[in-house]
Write a structure and sequence with these properties.
The protein is mainly beta and 427 residues long. It folds into 3 domains: 21-152, Coagulation Factor XIII, Chain A, domain 1 (Distorted Sandwich), CATH 2.70.50.30; 158-269, Immunoglobulins (Immunoglobulin-like), CATH 2.60.40.10; 277-415, Immunoglobulin-like (Sandwich). The chain is built from 3 helices and 28 strands. The strands form 6 sheets. Strands 3, 5, 6, 7, 9 and 10 form a 6-stranded mixed sheet that branches. Strands 12-19-18-14-15 form a 5-stranded mixed sheet, with no helix packed on it. It has a 5-stranded mixed sheet with strand order 21-28-27-23-25, with no helix packed on it. Mean pLDDT is 83; it is low at 4-17 and 381-387.
Length: 427
């Protein structure tokens, strides 16, 4: 019984393993060049440094083709390529693995290519490494082959190691964004006259600095700080996320490396160029006695940063006639003007009537103000403007003046606070 059990175990173990000759790596190519394969015994019996290694450059992308051949039915296999011995392997893993697939060579030998890609880090040291090619399924021992790689530094290799922004990744429109760039030379040669540009293409702003020399530390990685660069964010920039493109040109400006970052800009309400019209209207509704004229006061304030011309127009029905004291008002930034709308009922008109005041800037309609007039029959003779309307006009002018004074004080304080904050932050 014991012998029977042992025989069953031995059969199961053999079936679980890749039997010799049933599955093998026939050929390996790196970047379309055939390379020599070593077994575990070859590695144990010889010095790796004595082998003719396949030369690759740090920072390069390796395209690997592994040709498998099977004379049996193999299921759920994977092929993996990896390089070990890199100091920062826990941060930048140098490996790639295929999806699971089957290879049926029961009737005739079956072959299939497995394609993998390895990206070599820029900081990979000038040394010999083993490229491990592993074929395995869920149960069987691994089939491993090795390729000796000789990693050499690139003749010219430059990268943007880091970029820091001040005051941070958020800046207000109208302020400056400070960019500090750190260059990394991982090549074999010192780089002279490196041109570094920081730009925000959407805003049309950029800054450039030249670095006399970015040295290499005995053919290893070395770093160089770039003089600080300022980007003046336009004061009218709207709130949003904008790209910052950092570019370094080297090797007589023939080679270029670029990295992109995002910066959030918040708008500065003081410097928005859009039309900002502030209106203050006297009582929008009045009772008008037949045969008299009522006046409505409308104050216009230009709260923008540019002088504006405003076109005014009144529209009324046939029951009342409306006229304007001015049809065109030109205001400088922060200035204001009171316009009077006179409304006179026609003979026989009674009840509530409507007058619309339309304000335009160019072809853009900015505001439409609705003025209501409740027309009542006349109680006797009266002048063109009743005593009551005189008091109403005086009240309207008083209200408008109060609003204007408040706006002037508010804008003055806002400009003063913004100027003080700009001076304290940067100068």
């Amino acid at each position: 019984m014991a012998l029977f059990v042992l025989s069953l175990l031995s059969v199961s173990l053999v079936s679980a393993a890749f039997a010799p000759g049933e599955l093998d790596i026939v050929e390996v190519e790196i970047d379309d060049v055939s390379v020599d394969l070593l077994t575990q015994a070859d590695i144990e019996n010889s010095n790796v440094d004595s082998e003719a290694g396949f030369v690759v450059e740090e920072g390069a992308e390796l395209n690997i083709r592994v040709l498998l051949e099977s004379t049996t039915n193999v299921e759920d296999i994977q092929v993996e390529a990896e390089i070990r011995g890199y100091e920062y392997d826990d941060y930048e893993d140098i490996s790639d693995r295929t999806h699971i697939y089957d290879l049926d060579g029961t009737n005739t030998a079956a072959r299939k290519n497995a394609r993998l890609t390895l990206n070599l880090p820029n900081r990979l040291e000038d040394d010999r490494y083993l490229l491990r090619l592993t074929v395995e399924d869920k149960d069987s021992p691994s089939l491993v082959r090795y390729v000796v790689l000789q990693v050499e530094p690139q003749r010219h290799g430059l990268d943007i190691a880091d970029v820091a922004f001040s005051p941070g990744n958020t800046v207000q429109a109208g302020r400056s964004l400070l960019a500090s760039v750190l260059l990394e030379n991982y090549g074999d040669k010192d780089e002279k006259d490196v041109k570094v540009t920081v730009a925000m293409p959407e805003l049309g702003v950029s800054a450039t600095e030249y670095v006399d020399k970015v040295e290499t530390d005995n053919h290893n990685v070395d770093y160089e700080d770039v003089p600080e660069m300022f980007l003046a964010i336009p004061a009218t920039t709207a709130t949003g996320d904008y790209q910052v493109v950092v570019t370094a040109q080297y090797d007589d400006l023939r080679e270029t490396v670029t990295k992109t970052y995002n910066v959030h800009v918040t708008e500065n309400l003081m410097f928005q160029e859009s039309d900002k019209l502030v209106l203050a209207v006297g009582p929008e509704s009045q009772t008008i006695m037949a045969g008299t004229t009522a006046s409505y006061g409308v104050a216009l304030t230009n709260a923008g940063r540019q002088s504006k011309a405003y076109i005014l127009e009144v529209v009324s029905n046939g029951a009342v006639q409306a006229t304007l004291s001015e049809n065109l008002v030109v205001l400088e930034p922060g200035k204001n003007k009171v316009v009077r709308v006179d409304v006179t009922p026609v003979e026989g008109a009674v009840g509530e009537q409507m007058v619309s005041l339309v304000i335009r800037s160019g072809s853009d309609e900015l505001e439409t103000v609705a003025l209501r007039a409740n027309v009542v029959p006349s109680a006797g003779k009266a002048g063109n403007v009743s005593l009551r309307n005189g008091f109403e006009i005086a009240a309207i002018v008083l209200v408008v003046l109060i609003v204007i004074i408040g706006l002037i004080i508010g804008f003055s304080r806002l400009r003063k606070d913004d100027a003080e904050e700009e001076e304290q932050t940067y100068y």
